[in-house]
Amino acid sequence: MKRKDDKKIIQIFQAALRLVAEKGLSGVTMGDISREAGIATGTLYVYFKGKDELINALFAACRENSVQVSFKGYNPQIPFKPGFKNIWLNILRYKLQHFEEVIFMEQCYHSPFITNDTREKALQLSAPFYALIDRGQKEQLIKQADAGLLLTFIIGAMNELVKQTHYSSITLNRSRINTAFDLCWDALKA
Amino acid sequence: MKRKDDKKIIQIFQAALRLVAEKGLSGVTMGDISREAGIATGTLYVYFKGKDELINALFAACRENSVQVSFKGYNPQIPFKPGFKNIWLNILRYKLQHFEEVIFMEQCYHSPFITNDTREKALQLSAPFYALIDRGQKEQLIKQADAGLLLTFIIGAMNELVKQTHYSSITLNRSRINTAFDLCWDALKA
DNA sequence: AATATAAGCGAATATATATTCATTTTAAAG
DNA sequence: CTTTAAAATGAATATATATTCGCTTATATT
Lengths: 190, 190
Prior knowledge:
2 copies of one chain form a homodimer. The first copy, chain A, is mostly helical. Chain A has helices at 6-23, 30-37, 41-47, 51-70, 80-97, 99-109, 116-124, 127-138, 147-168, 174-188. Chain A is built from 10 helices and no strands. In chain A, helix 1 (6-23) crosses helix 2 and helix 2 packs across helix 3 (41-47). The longest helix of chain A is centred in the C-terminal third of the chain and has 22 residues, at 147-168. The relative contact order of chain A is 0.11. The model of chain A has no long low-confidence stretch (mean pLDDT 95). Chains A and B meet through helix 1, helix 6, helix 9 and helix 10 of A and helix 1, helix 6, helix 9 and helix 10 of B. Chain B binds a DNA duplex through residues 1-5, 8, 29-31, 39-47, 50-51.
């Protein structure tokens, strides 16, 4: 007896991510994915019921992974601003290093592939971010505006930064990163 | 003899926009578009050589239109901040009223449909925005950071705001709009 | 009003893509 | 080492989609 190979799922996911970032969700076929992953097309159907399931599983995996990474090293003991910056940098680093995920998630949001259930579950994972904003507001450090609005601002700006960085191939050096963070912080601060 | 009908092109474009916003670029077929536009599938090919040309033409039209609208009412005579806010509001209004275009443009960017040529031309239309930032910097009103970075911030935050508004169906009332603008301005101001 | 010319049509065709399945390969268990 | 069950394969099939084309309809021009 042979066991399903977890490594193969990762191969499949990475192949799909690479291809979607390059050609968009509309331009990627099951055949493309299998070729890029170095397996036969039929094998995809051993791991996933079909294209829908594959895309939904990948979407969920990306979302979970990204939330996990964001709070790495976060400790509520340390003061808000450095703690916030740590998270901000975690997210930025992650998105720069996993550019394909940024594009994939963006493309997915308006595709018929993603089910409402998958969407819902992704949304629920945002809770820690709301809690973070809440802390900053309780400490009177950031504006008393709707947390959703503030998060929208932070994430929207960062996503666009990551995309612009990727296309322009301007290297995002330390100075540029700090400038970007200052823009973000000045926007938020009370 | 019968002439090609400009109104029909608009019908086709609007149908395509509606469908892409709903189902994503990957989920929209030529058949869908013709049905939604109320014409026969073959007629699409009277107006466009094929799907590629249709998508590229729509992309270019959206981009031109949005730049046009942005600077409506702008007058370099009036002080920078209200002039800037006017433009910011123009863009926000436009994006809220033409949500399908926001999604369509986003989806297109990473699709194999859009040619490099189309992409290039879209980029060139950004010149007036760079000029605007330049003015603000010369007047010492906004930060002396790279203009591309500042624009990225403004546009990224706004796009996300528009999307979040649409999904959450939180109405963006005057107070919320002003809060959002303040976030933006506080980020930029010197 | 007659004619010419292009738009408009949609079923038929060509093409691309997802999915299945009979067969082969792999590796765990006895 | 043999057996066995599941994974892996990829050509074959089913399905979906883009595109074409012979024909009809509309309307400018004479």
